[in-house]
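Your task:
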Amino acid sequence: MAATTVTSTIPNPPVLNQYNYEDWSFQVKLYLLAEDLWDVVEATTEPPKLEDGEAEFKAWRKKDAKALILIQNYCGSANYPLVLGTKTAKAA
């Protein structure tokens, strides 16, 4: 029997507007979970410091940047100024 390959694509979350925060929040969380980025948003511990190890720090920083840009991209133009100055995905 031949192996079956299943290809899935993760749908993009909606853009945030004044009416859809609950749906937007849920879908952004699912998107970040699917992309293995939610842990930097939900982080309950401090992020690694450079002196703790460069590789670990860079890996965390890269994940955080991916999560932050995703949040910024889907927050909508009206809400973008609210997250523009944030430094981490958790802060956004």
Remarks:
- The radius of gyration is 16 Å.
- The chain has a mean pLDDT of 90.
- The chain has four helices and no strands.
